[in-house]
Each structure stands twice: as C-alpha cells, then as structure tokens.
Write a structure and sequence with these properties.
Layout lengths: L1 E3 L8 E7 L2 E6 L12 H11 L1 E4 L6 H9 L22 E3 L1 E2 L2 E2 L5 H8 L14 E10 L7 E5 H7 L2 H7 L3 E4 L1 H6 L3 H4 L10 E4 L1 E3 L6 E3 L5 E4 L4 H15 L5 E4 L6 E5 L3 E5 L9 E8 L6 H6 L1
Parallel strand pairs: 3-4
Antiparallel strand pairs: 1-2, 2-3, 4-16, 5-18, 6-7, 8-16, 8-18, 9-15, 9-17, 10-11, 10-14, 12-13
Amino acid sequence: MRSIRAFGAARTVETTPLHPRLGVELHGLDLRDVTAKSGYPGLRALFETHSALLIRNQTLTDADHMAFASLFGPIEDRKADERKEGEAFEVPRVSNETPGGVTDADDLHSLNLKSNMLWHADSTFMPAPALTNILIARVVTSEGGNTELASSRAAFADFPEDLKARLRGLRFRHHYSHSRARISPELAALPMFHKWPEQSWPAVWKNPVTGDEALYIASHAFAVEGLEEKEGQALIDDLTERATVPDYVYSHRWAPGDVLIWDQRAVLHRGTPWPPDEPRTLTSLCVTTTEADGLADMRAR
C-alpha cells in the first residue's frame, strides 16, 4: 500500500494495485465529498494513469451517483428520444429484477444481459462513445456475477511493433445490433439496437494526457475497413482474444457499495454468469467523451 497526496493538502488517500497491469483501489475516500476542485483532480489523474479505480463501502444515492459522474463529463442518455415531455432521467440499472421476480433465462431482457458478457467497450456504436462507466453494486449474488476488466492499453504495449504499426492505420466499423446478433437474432432486431447508424473509429486510441496508446475494439465491431468481411471479423476476434488473456484481466467480485470506474478508451469489460434464480442489480452511468478526452483526434484520423 502506498500513500498519495493528490487530493488536497488536508487529504491523504492510500491506494493498492488491483492487478499488475491495471487499476488501483482507493482507501479512505468518501465519493460524496469529491468536488470539481477538491478530490476530483487527483482522482482523475489516477484514472488517466491506471485506467481503473475501485472504491469500496460507498453509500451513494442515485442523486449522488449522478453528481459524481458529472465531474467526468456529460452523462450519456440513450433513452432521450423515448421519454415523454417532463419525464425525468433515471439512473440506468443493469438488473434481472422485475416486480414479479427475476427474468427468465430465455427472456429478451436476460439475453440482453447475456450480451454484456461479450468483451466490449461501451457506446462505440454512438457518435460520441463513452469515456467511462461508473458502476455501483446494489444487489449482489452468492456467486458469479463478476465484472471483468481487460487492459487494452497493456495489451497494445506488448504487441509486436509491426502489428502496432498496422493497427495505427486501421479503422473498425461498429453497430449496436452486431453484439446482440451474436446472442440472438430476435434480440438484435429490436428497435433500440438500431437507433444509431454504424460508426467508424480508428483501431488505436491515444490518451491525450499520458500519450499511451490502446487497442480500441468492442463486441460491437463488425468489420475492418479495407478488408473482406471474413478477414476483418477474424482480425477483430484475434485482437480481442490477444487483449483479454489473463495477463491483462482483473476480475471484480462485487460487494454492496462497491464503486468501479474504468477508462473505456483503454479497457474492455464483460460480465460473468451468476445463478439465474438470484437477483443482481448494478446502477450504471456512462459519461460521454469530449474533445479533451481525445475524441477530436479520433474523428480527425
């Protein structure tokens, strides 16, 4: 464990590594006390350097969750077009709970949760993808239900130089329905997975703060520009496999009150299965990238 003094002169926060190549856990921090001027600059510096942050034993309400997430940037709102006039934004829940109990395993909602078990970065199918996801554990299971993070930054650093050079010249095409089609054609046909046209992003995202490069890929990626369909999909699958070997993966076992934050530009993630008859609920807020996060450079290439 090491102490840092990046949270103001009166505040010392200790950190421990989550994984040799990815992430730190912060100790002695109440996220309700973090503001734009006090706490956030130090926390953001750790985010840029380590790509993932874990803070346990938090008691954030949905309002607290939104206030904290807003420090990182604009909160993503995928349902803005669905809400009626005057209807408030609600913090999204990643959950199998309904008023009548947990959803059936073959229900479309359950299949959508299953699609989150594919390695991905969030919102690569949107005109401005996610910078981060801030997940909070509300209801956890007796076993399973982990969230796994894989450092695509560490993976890219270890790639052979010729592969790095090739990737710097490639672009992946992304669409929301593609990841859902891997699970169920019926799921993929739902209107919610066709709201946005396909997006094209460079295969490498360079962090504008640290200068580090990361493989930028997702289960939503369905083609490589300039390659035939089968060749492109084979390359996407190969790169995903390379970036998610155990050397780069941290698997988080949830406890109520855990807050997990990661850099979508440099980390892939997925859920893992849990007993289907047990409820599991996380609250999830994605924050959208801005020009300061490297979005302008990604668009320009």
